[in-house]
Please model this.
Amino acid sequence: MRLSLLIILMLPLYLFAQRRDKEERIVYFTDDQVKRSSVFLAADGSGIYSNRSVLGQRGAGFAPGAIEQIPRSRATFAYHYGGYFGVRLSRSLEVSFGVSQNNAGWLNRRTEYEGISTQTRVRLNQTNLPVHFSFFSKMNDFLILEVVPMLELNMLTSYTEDISMRREPFSDLVKLDMVDEARQFNISVGIAIGGRFMLTDQFSFYARPFFRYMVNPILETDDRPREVVWGVGLMTGLRFDFL
Model:
């Protein structure tokens, strides 16, 4: 009888000890620890308005650096697309490496070809090796703000100039292939500012307005302006984080 009473009295104490031991073995994680990923893949595309900036003209008939003598150009629509592999370096910094393709161009409305008043449409295509550094801040479970400095190695694949009549009948006169005269390798720098929107724990969508500027002139000849290519646009893409 006494033994039964002792067991009944000790049973609640034993159950309480077991529960306490279980609670001490439980490890809790914050949302940042659960959702943090060190590796990700991304793919994006961009619409770009591209144009040229003229650094000067060294050829005959122009005063040194006489930019005002060079006809103004008009921006044209271009595109960019690429894929990236990225790594998180810290709580607020990521770096990604990729391969991308883009075209660019502009329209010179007032040119002259063999004494005829013409307009010239310039088009170039490049394959790029971009490196993006993303400084980010998590606002909530849905939105992450990003500032992304960009560095690219540009490899020229084509460069053409389509010369046509500036007045009716607007017929094409000649198409020049300038790839051999152009700089084959270049460097572009840029910056993008935008946000990433979490769709799930692993998938997200991002949108970033950006500005991109080519460092070196695309042509270095005595009879041509020293032109660098720039563009502004909106980069949109999808990202997958490995958990």
User: Anything to note?
Assistant: The two ends are 58 Å apart (CA to CA).
